[in-house]
């Protein structure tokens, strides 16, 4: 009989690549992870791992078992969700991950709603980049997370993660009427490896140029302060652009950032996850419709009057 706990470790090894990374994620020692995987090989009756010095990779049988392990673990999550529903209202710890803008703008109201509707829940929030959410959900570090997707950037969640769309918001360019007009400017983007950085670079590339990035800043309030100080231009989402500082104007672009709730597949009907998603929806601030026709742009802020734009290149 194959042990689901060992299958979980094998899946994490396929996702993370090294035993040390698996051990860190599940708070085991590397030796304990190796022992569990060796025991799984004995249970399976075939080699699952290839060891070359200190490196370990999956054999074809190991990769096949990972595919089945995903289905097994998902079904166990569904069983857990069904039992939780039988027990009654959601209660206990609820580990929530979110990107910084959502932590600041959306989560305070969502947590207040959860406390009022489900006092037995104990929400615990951790900031996390969306690129790290799949691994954190798979390792059991999070129960639900807020993630975002941008135009020009593929989704970062993998097949082990289910998502529920929440809302879309437009993107704005600072202090220029179009991307093409900002070709020669210095740029402020997120750190390399983040979705914000990839979105800004690819949006510029789609407009026909490679941005000259001067600063890497993840916090959008700091980004807008840098823009106000003459340190460059940037792309910012609507939720971060409600009150730009003096000296910063915002041009709406035909680009979107979409926010979704993410959770392990099999937890779709878990009462705590359902309660969290309901609270996220209720706390969603109003956003202008993303499909605003090209040819218009705001004068000074995301909420100000609209006037014709020169170009949407």
TrEMBL record:
Region of interest: Disordered: 284-313
Domain HTH lysR-type, chain residue ranges per copy: 2-59
Biased composition (Pro residues): 285-296
CDD domains: HTH_ARSR, PBP2_LTTR_like_6
Keyword Repeat appears in the UniProt entry: no
Keyword DNA-binding found: yes
PANTHER family hit by this protein: LYSR SUBSTRATE-BINDING, TRANSCRIPTIONAL DUAL REGULATOR HCAR-RELATED
Entry similarity comment: Belongs to the LysR transcriptional regulatory family.
Name of the molecule in the record: LysR family transcriptional regulator
């Amino acid at each position: 009989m194959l042990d689901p706990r060992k299958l979980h470790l094998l899946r994490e090894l396929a996702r993370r690549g090294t035993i040390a990374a698996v051990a860190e994620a599940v708070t085991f020692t590397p030796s304990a992870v190796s022992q569990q995987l060796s025991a799984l090989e004995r249970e399976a009756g075939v080699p699952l791992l290839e060891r070359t010095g200190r490196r370990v990779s999956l054999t074809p049988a190991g990769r096949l078992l990972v595919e089945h392990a995903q289905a097994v673990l998902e079904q166990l999550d569904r069983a857990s969700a069904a039992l939780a529903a039988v027990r009654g209202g959601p209660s206990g710890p609820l580990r929530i991950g979110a990107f910084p803008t959502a932590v600041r703008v959306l989560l305070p109201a969502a947590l207040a709603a959860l406390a009022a509707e489900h006092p037995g829940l104990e929400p615990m929030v951790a900031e996390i980049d969306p690129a790290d959410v799949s691994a954190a959900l798979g390792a059991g570090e999070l129960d639900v997370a807020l993630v975002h997707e941008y135009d020009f950037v593929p989704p970062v969640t993998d097949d082990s993660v289910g998502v529920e769309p929440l809302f879309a918001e437009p993107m704005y360019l600072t202090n220029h009427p179009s991307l093409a007009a900002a070709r020669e400017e210095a740029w402020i983007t997120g750190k390399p490896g983040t979705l914000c950085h990839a979105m800004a670079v690819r949006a510029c590339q789609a407009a026909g140029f490679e941005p000259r990035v001067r600063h890497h800043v993840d916090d959008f309030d700091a980004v807008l302060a840098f823009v106000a100080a003459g340190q460059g231009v940037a792309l910012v989402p609507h939720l971060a652009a409600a009150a730009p500082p003096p000296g910063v104007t915002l041009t709406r672009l035909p680009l979107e950032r979409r926010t979704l709730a993410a959770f392990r597949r099999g937890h779709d009907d878990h009462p705590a996850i359902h309660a969290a998603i309901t609270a996220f929806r209720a706390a969603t601030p109003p956003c202008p419709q993303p499909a605003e026709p090209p040819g218009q742009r705001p004068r000074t802020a995301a909420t100000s009057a609209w006037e014709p734009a020169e170009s949407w290149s």
